[in-house]
Amino acid sequence: MGWKELTTPISSIVLVLIASVIGSAGAVFLKSGAMVLRPALSSILFNWKLALGIITYLLSSVLFVKGMSNGQLSILFPMVSIGYICTLAWSRLFFREVITRAKVMGIGLILVGIVCLSLANK
Amino acid sequence: LSTITVSPEVHEVDPQKRRQAALIVACCTLLIAVAQLLIKIGANRLSHAGLMATLIGIFTIPPLFAGYCLYGIFTVLFVYALRHGEVSVLYPIIALGYVWVAILSAVVFHEPMNPLKVIAITIIVAGVAVLGWGGKS
Q1: What's the ipTM?
Q2: Spatial distance between the Cα atoms of A87 and A25, rounded to a whole number of angstroms
């Protein structure tokens, strides 16, 4: 890879990184919101966890679009998978979900696949 | 408001519903893929826009708007799935969306499919399968 190809601004890398971490936090809020959901309109409208999850998710998407609009996708794109690793930690911390070997292997494979995909898209 | 005291750990999980949740998210990744293609088309018009212009663009640029609507539908189904499944299993399954993007790009936009892409798709699908399998026990 020549130096000419390294044109990804640090700001884009930071934006995509933040977007990934925020996105995983959004999934955690959505989960905790979903757990207390009852089949009533008020339960959906006044569910602040769900609202926070959606806002976080939306913010993550905006930062993502912004970050991806400048720079190399082959560098920025694989950073999405950092969010999956974060989710593993959040889910253990907040929901006592067990980190099984299958989860680590599955996420590991997905990570490798995403790196391959971004190399293939070059 | 005082009724919101149910702690997540108390929530019981039915293994069959758990697998169903993984299947719902896996199927819904097609929505994500279409949304991402639409957002990609729309984002091309935003390459030098500020944060505020990007926010406004979501509502004024049709492909961007349609893309986010699909994201909305996905979110509703994702929340439904989260009630019965683990977030550490369901969230990474969304990566299946990239597989759909690669397939749709080849089929709809006639982008060339190379061996590395096929290998990448296979590895991601395998990863999702391992995740779904492991969440079962």
Answers
A1: 0.85
A2: 7
Nearest chain B residue (CA) to A111? B124
> Which amino acid is residue B50, in one-letter code?
G
Residue B116: other Cβ atoms inside 10 A = 14
Tell me the C-alpha distance between B32 and B98, whole Å. 9
Instruction: Report the distance separating Cα B83 and Cα B80, nearest Å.
Output: 6
Distance CA A48, CA A32 (A): 10
pLDDT of res. B7: 46
Q: Which residues of chain A have pLDDT under 70?
A: 1-6, 122
Contact yes or no for A34 and B71 at CB 8 A: no
**Cα separation of B85 and A72, whole Å?**
35
- Give the number of residues written for chain B: 137
Paired tokens of A19: 């977007």
Q: For A30, name the nearest residue in chain B, comparing CA atoms only.
A: B79
Shortest Cα–Cα distance, B122 to chain A (Å) = 8
Are the C-beta atoms of residues B57 and B46 closer than 8 Å to each other?
Answer: yes
CA–CA–CA angle B34, B36, B40 (5° rounding): 120
